[in-house]
């Protein structure tokens, strides 16, 4: 995201004032969410399945504890990257899907995943 046309970032604490530098301030919030362990993998798994239930996410991730998964899902939902849909059924059913912003984050991370896959393949050679 480029700075405002007046050359100043909206955040007065931003170190990048003036010039053609890119203001990194908008990254602060999203980095706090997606840098937590499991967050990117959860986004990827939900994106791969379009709609998925809690236990299916657990099965896909393997080592994650139910509490950690629940915490990450709440954080991702609060940040607007995933949507939780509860159905009034017995037993209760909840499905998770990506929001428009979640899809954009997933699309943005695909080049990073491809790069990581390439680097891992090079290590095996």
From TrEMBL:
It holds the Pfam family HxlR. GO terms for molecular function: DNA binding. The keyword DNA-binding applies. Signal peptide: none annotated. Keywords: DNA-binding, Transcription, Transcription regulation. InterPro entries: ArsR-like_HTH, HTH_HxlR, WH-like_DNA-bd_sf, WH_DNA-bd_sf. Residues 25-124 form the HTH hxlR-type domain. CDD domains: HTH_ARSR (cd00090). PANTHER family: TRANSCRIPTIONAL REGULATOR, MARR FAMILY, TRANSCRIPTIONAL REGULATORY PROTEIN. This is Helix-turn-helix transcriptional regulator. It comes from Methanolobus vulcani. The lineage of its organism: Archaea, Methanobacteriati, Methanobacteriota, Stenosarchaea group, Methanomicrobia.
């Amino acid at each position: 995201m480029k700075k405002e046309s007046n050359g100043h970032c909206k955040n007065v604490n931003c170190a990048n004032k003036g010039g053609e530098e890119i203001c990194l301030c908008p990254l602060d919030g999203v980095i706090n969410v997606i840098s937590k362990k499991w967050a990117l993998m959860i986004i990827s798994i939900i994106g791969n399945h379009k709609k998925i239930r809690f236990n299916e996410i657990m099965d896909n991730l393997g080592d994650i504890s139910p509490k950690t998964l629940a915490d990450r899902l709440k954080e991702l939902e609060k940040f607007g990257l995933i949507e939780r849909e509860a159905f009034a059924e017995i037993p209760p059913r909840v499905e998770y899907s990506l929001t428009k912003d979640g899809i954009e984050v997933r699309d943005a991370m695909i080049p990073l995943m491809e790069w990581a896959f390439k680097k891992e393949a090079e290590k095996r050679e």
